[in-house]
Amino acid sequence: MSQLDLMFGEIFQLLITCITYRNLRPVRENYRHVVFSWILTAYFVIFIFFLGRYLTQVFLNIDVTIMSKIVTSMMIPGLSQIILKNFGGTIFQKNFLILLNFVEQLYTRKEGNVWIQKIVDMELMKTIKIGNIFFRAYILLFSFTCAGLMITLILQDMMVISIPNLKPEDHAIIYHTIQSGTPFIAAVWNGLADFAIIFIGLCMLSFVKIINKMIASLTDEEIVVDCPDLLLRTMKKHVKMIEILGIFNDGVKLMSFIQIIMSVIMYLVMMFGMQLLSSEYSLYMMFCCVLVQLFLLCVFGEIIKSETEIIFWNLYLTNWYEMNLNDQKIILLMMMNSQNEIGLKAAGIYDVSLMAFVQILKMSLSYSAVILTFTK
Fold it and tell me: Beta partners for 158?
């Protein structure tokens, strides 16, 4: 067994667990994690109720610190986002099962040609390494942010929830344990659930790069002689790419929309807080987390769009004029299919791209400045 097979075997088990947490439904009879994810869902619904109860009680109370109100206002959409995205994944579970099978076949299938297999192995190895680095960095980022939030809550003796029949002054330890521990649980849960989407996305991006490298290899006579059906293999992968990207887009369109809406709300709250309380560094850490989460989604949408557009130009740059008529027809058909824009669309309508990311930030900053003006 190769190193690639061993590395994939480990990360594939993690992927199954992550998809289970995202879909709240069993994936390959992974019932234990389904039960645990539903328990977490119930717990977070109750915790959001505690947050909302506290916010309604203190919103107009001038004796309660602004920081406490901001943290509560930020946590409500933040935790709601996790739950709503999971239910959004539940609706499209069939899409994720198809994508899971695609990833498994991508790593386990042998191409039957040394040149093509070398290209595939190189790209897939990069995907696993990037996936591992990302998973650790993502979890660490959210964990450090939660640690900063926990320290802020404890040092300032801040309350952000209201539990019925439990007074904060009499049960301070219970309050601090619940409101400090919950963000850590949310960070790990969100990291696992998001990793499912991101790793599948990385695999599809590798698949697109494999196709581009196969197209570039059409100009290499040595490879063409060794693999005379290279163009036909490339065309089949291109058709598969269009199909699988469509399935992925359908599967994440609702989650992308929820991510954008909730991110806008959190940006408004945190930008307002950072302008009002510039010395509260925990707000900057939380803002970075939300920023990274949306940025990664928009960057992926941008890269997928650009990589699929490159296919058209790579096909044009081949020696198509030296090919026989049948091969020219295949090239032309692939070029026609490549003219259709492929990218992520939130709710199937709005483009998920770097331009969308910039527009969201500009809009959030403008509205938070307006709100700050009226509150002064």
Answer: none
| C-alpha span between 161 and 178 (Å, rounded) | 9
Question: What's phi and psi for 346, nearest 5 deg?
Answer: -70, 130
Residues 135-147 as b/e (b if ≥16 CB within 10 A, e otherwise) read beebbebbeebbb
For 101, the enclosing helix (H) or strand (E) is helix 93-108
Cross-strand partners of 346? 350
Report how far apart, in Å, the C-alpha atoms of 141 and of each of 134, 148, 194, 208 are. Answer: 10, 11, 14, 29
CA distances from 332 to 137, 336, 337 (A): 43, 6, 9
In 109-171, which ranges are continuous DSSP H helix? 114-155
Whether residue 145 contacts residue 279, with contact meaning beta carbons closer than 8 Å, is answered with no
CB 37 within 8 A of CB 83: no
Task: Write the pLDDT tens digit of every residue in 17-55.
Answer: 999 988 888 888 888 889 999 999 999 999 999 999 999
Q: Confirm whether pTM is higher than 0.85.
A: yes
Q: How far apart are CA 203 and CA 201, in angstroms?
A: 5
> Partners of 345 in the beta sheet?
351
